[in-house]
Amino acid sequence: MKYTFQDKEQIEYNIPLITRSSNLGIGLIWFFVCPFTGKVCRKVHLINGRFRHRSALPRLMYQNQIEAKKWREWNRIFANDFTIYTELYSKYFKRYYKGKMTKRFARLSKKIEETENNFNADEYLKLFKSYKN
After folding, report:
1. pTM above 0.90?
2. Which of 19, 46, 99, 119 could form a disulfide with 28 if both were Cys (CB 3.0 to 4.6 A apart)?
3. How many C-beta neighbours within 10 Å does residue 84 have?
4. pLDDT tens for residues 6-31?
């Protein structure tokens, strides 16, 4: 494999591919062999200009792994509401077209209605009371 990283660094190396038989007994499944760790994996990530298995950087973490537990709980509860309203109030969102409600607006309206019907005030109050600075 030959490629240019950030328009200045020429990189050339090979990432070996291997096959293993499927657990269903039908066909083969392709895997990468990480050139840095030697691990067999389904995905390699572009890390600092090189393709590697994610274990090549031991301190690499997902965003939610470094968030506080409290924030993860808040995201679990409020993320759905946030995405609905973000889409509803996006720049070119159309609620009606030629006098008819758009399918997108109808879908969002249904989600908002479901959210309001499933609203549990006790869960929200418990969450707010448990939050301390």
Report:
1. no
2. 19
3. 17
4. 888 888 888 899 999 999 988 999 99
